Amino acid sequence: MSDNHESKKEEEIDFISTPSLQKAIKKTRRRQTFKYVIIAVFTTVILLTILFTGSQYILTNRLEHQDNYYDMIHGANISFASSSNNYNLFSVTKETTYRKSIGDRSIVWDKKTEKIPLFGRIDTIERGSGMIEVNVFNEKAQRMVRYNEFNNERKIDFYYPGLSYDYLPIELDTAVGLDKNKLIEVALSFKEPMTLAELSKKLGYENVNWLWADTTTVAQMDRMTKELDSDSLKTKGGGGAFGFEVRQEYPYSKENGQGFIQTMKQLNKTDSHKSSIKEALKGIKENTQSTKGEIRLNGAVVTGSPAELRRFQKLDFIRASVIGATVDKY
Prior knowledge:
Blueprint: H1 2-16, H2 19-65, H3 69-73, E1 78-87, E2 91-102, E3 105-117, E4 123-127, E5 136-138, E6 143-145, E7 157-159, H4 172-175, E8 182-195, H5 196-202, E9 208-213, H6 218-227, E10 235-237, E11 243-245, H7 254-270, H8 274-287, E12 296-304, H9 306-309, E13 318-328
Helix pairs in contact: 7-8
Domain Sigma factor regulator C-terminal: 178-324
InterPro entries: Sigma_reg_C_dom (IPR025672), Sigma_reg_N (IPR029101)
Pfam families: Sigma_reg_C, Sigma_reg_N
């Protein structure tokens, strides 16, 4: 009986180890492995698609919030020209080009490259006009003259009404004496702030490109008056000034001012420059109390040939004038 049991056991073992069964088992295992691989690949593709789509959505959303409206109200006579975006999985690199209009010509003024991550702070990687500014006192001009590193053109500065300065440049006189085939940018600073209605009568529209809005708070003016001694520390660089573009084809009026304020308020909700915009809105609110809500202007940017700029020499409300970029007319 024992022999019969052993015989049956061997027969069972022989049955399991038969080549046909082993082949079937291997085939089943291969199918199982293949199925698992397909499921893993399919799942990975779905997850990567979701990750990529979600990443692009968030980055596109960040780009939309970083719109070009800020460039419309910030930077004297500097306007947005174009931008290009290079998407990666977790960030996008954005290159923006800015231009200046001088007479009937325009020049590339700056190029900025930014890295915009999915989350966190937006970093400026490179700036054509220079990330760090080096100021050197110019003996001939009797002031700090700043230059754009991108094109070696002069940068403009404004002088505040109500602040005392050791020296006030009147470079408009130099501008009108330049070669007749030159087109010149000049920043004008006023003796007193003016409303748009007052300015349209006194300054006019021809050859006026941009208006500098009075956004300085009482506290800021008080600090500059009491704590800052050097003239260079009390000027407003054109690149950091708030204001808006104007054109002689469309005479400006108080509606321009209201549009400027509305744009500022909108950007205060969505833009990445909220802190500076909030401070500027505070200054506008303080400064418009005496003008029944009408915005005040501290200066303007005018451009044109020496002959076209000559009329501005006759205006007695101009406190200071600074030459900016110059280009050949032909």
